[in-house]
């Protein structure tokens, strides 16, 4: 019975989180993010502002979460789900590129909203830190027993590489005809991800080889 109650509680929390994300993005698209208050999002989702604060610390975080929801879990699951014959470096890079360029990626309206608002753009880039913990577990599972710091360092490095790629992708381009800055996606995101993750391939390969030697002893 306790397990069932816990499961129902988690389902309710997930539903609330999804309702808040959806309401935040919808209101931001309708009114513009500067005209949306936390109270507005909470009311639209049917919860109190206090409940809202249990899930998100700002309106920007909620708006961005509607675009990036559960991405970190999908990345980790993709790494863990790669066949054993796929090397760790390939597994990580493929998982990152696939999940950040998936067909269900944000639509142009949501992307334009994020890229043209500095606060939203910063919040979007900051979501890369959420990759670290689940990716650490996925890498550690693939490596097996060994130095517990290796998986964490590798996962943190991957998160940093993804951040660099996103910053480059969303770099500011100034229009020659206006005084205001216009932020536009720059370059191919898959290419940028491959480029920023490339320096980590040797470290991922070395960690995998080290784990293999450890298991063969």
Short summary:
By secondary structure, the chain is mainly alpha-helical. Helices cover 71% and strands 3% of the residues.
Structure, described:
With 217 residues, the chain is mainly alpha-helical. Helix 6 (88-100) packs antiparallel against helix 11. It has helices at 2-31, 38-45, 49-53, 59-68, 71-81, 88-100, 108-115, 118-126, 132-143, 148-169, 189-197, 201-216; strands at 172-174, 181-183. Strands 1-2 form a two-stranded antiparallel sheet. The termini are far apart.
Question: Keywords, please?
Answer:
single chain, two-stranded antiparallel sheet
Strand order of the largest sheet: 1-2
Q: How far apart are the first and last residues' alpha carbons, in Å?
A: 45 Å
Structural class, please? Answer: mainly alpha
List low-pLDDT spans: 173-181
Total helical segments: 12
Measured on Cα atoms, how large is the radius of gyration? 20 Å
What global shape is seen?
A: globular
Order of helices and strands: HHHHHHHHHHEEHH
* Approximate helicity band: over 70%
Tally of DSSP β-strands: 2
What fraction strand? Answer: under 5%
Main sheet attributes: strand count, strand direction, barrel closure: 2 strands, antiparallel
> What does the average pLDDT come to?
86
Quaternary structure annotation: single chain
């Amino acid at each position: 019975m306790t397990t069932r109650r816990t499961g129902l509680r988690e389902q309710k929390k997930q539903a609330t989180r999804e309702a808040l994300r959806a309401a935040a993005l919808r209101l931001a698209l309708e009114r513009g993010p500067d005209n949306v208050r936390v109270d507005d999002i909470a009311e639209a989702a049917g919860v109190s502002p206090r409940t809202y604060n249990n899930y998100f610390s700002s309106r920007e975080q909620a708006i961005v979460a509607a675009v990036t929801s559960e991405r970190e879990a999908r990345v980790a699951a993709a790494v863990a789900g790669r066949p054993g014959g796929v090397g760790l470096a390939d597994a990580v890079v493929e998982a990152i590129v696939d999940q950040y360029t998936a067909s269900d990626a944000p639509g142009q309206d949501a992307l334009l909203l994020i890229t043209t608002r500095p606060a939203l753009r910063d919040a979007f880039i900051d979501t890369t830190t959420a990759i670290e913990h689940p990716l650490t577990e996925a890498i550690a599972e693939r490596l097996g027993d060994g130095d517990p710091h290796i998986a964490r360092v590798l996962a943190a490095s991957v998160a940093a590489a993804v951040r660099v790629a996103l910053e480059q992708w969303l770099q500011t381009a100034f229009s020659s005809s206006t005084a205001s800055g216009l932020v536009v996606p720059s370059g191919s995101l898959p290419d940028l991800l491959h480029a920023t993750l490339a320096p980590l391939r040797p470290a991922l390969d070395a960690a995998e080889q080290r784990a293999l030697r450890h298991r063969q002893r």
